[in-house]
Write a structure and sequence with these properties.
Helix content is 42%, strand content 20%. It has 172 residues and is of the alpha+beta class. The protein has one domain (30-152): Gcn5-related N-acetyltransferase (GNAT) (Aminopeptidase, 3-Layer(aba) Sandwich). The chain has a 5-stranded mixed beta sheet with strand order 1-2-3-4-5.
C-alpha cells in the first residue's frame, strides 16, 4: 500500500513539476517592450478582442493617447509571443505617489499563461522608478478574473471606496 501511495505521489509531483516548467518556459517566450504610436491600431484591436470598452472620441482617441504617450512613453507596455501582440498595459502617474493601472488586456487565447501578471510587474517597476509608493487599479464590474489576478498580485480590494467622476463629454 505504501509503495502505491509513493508511486501516486511521484506521478502527481512529476506531472505538476512538468506543468510548471512548461508554464515557465512559455512565459520566457514572452517579450516585453515599450509601445509607440505605431502600435495604436494593434492596441485597439487587442482591446476589442479582449472585451475592453473603447472610447474612440475620448481617452482612447489617437490624439489623447499620443498626448499621454508623449508625456509618459514608458507607461505603455506590450507583451509579444514571437511576433504576435498578446498583451497590453497602460499606466499613469499622478506626480506625487500614486501610480495607476488603467488598461490591462490579454488576448483571450493567451490568458492563464502569466502574461497579465508579467505586464503588471513590469508596469509596477516602471512606476516605482517614477516615485510611486501606492499602486492602484480600477476594474470594471463584473470582471471577477481581473479582481482575482490583482488580489493574487498583492492588491487589496476596497469595498468601501466608490469611484466618482464628472465628465465633460460622455466619451471620456
Amino acid at each position: 500500500m505504501q509503495k502505491v501511495l509513493i508511486k501516486i505521489f511521484e506521478e502527481v509531483f512529476i506531472h505538476q513539476l512538468s506543468k510548471k516548467n512548461l508554464w515557465v518556459s512559455g512565459l520566457a517566450q514572452i517579450k516585453i517592450r515599450t509601445l509607440t504610436m505605431s502600435d495604436y491600431e494593434s492596441i485597439i484591436e487587442l482591446w476589442m478582442r479582449s472585451g475592453l470598452p473603447f472610447k474612440q472620441n475620448g481617452r482612447d482617441s489617437k490624439t489623447m493617447m499620443e498626448k499621454h504617450m508623449t508625456a509618459f512613453p514608458e507607461l505603455f507596455i506590450g507583451a509579444f509571443k514571437a511576433t504576435k501582440f498578446v498583451g497590453v498595459i497602460i499606466g499613469s502617474y499622478d506626480g506625487r505617489m500614486k501610480g495607476w493601472i488603467n488598461r490591462l488586456a490579454v488576448d483571450p487565447t493567451f490568458r492563464r499563461e502569466g502574461i497579465g501578471s508579467k505586464l503588471i510587474h513590469e508596469l509596477e517597476k516602471t512606476l516605482h522608478k517614477l516615485g510611486t509608493e501606492v499602486f492602484c487599479a480600477l476594474v470594471e464590474a463584473p470582471n471577477k478574473k481581473s479582481l482575482l489576478l490583482f488580489k493574487k498580485m498583492g492588491y487589496e480590494i476596497h469595498e468601501n471606496i466608490f469611484y466618482i467622476s464628472k465628465r465633460q463629454k460622455v466619451d471620456f
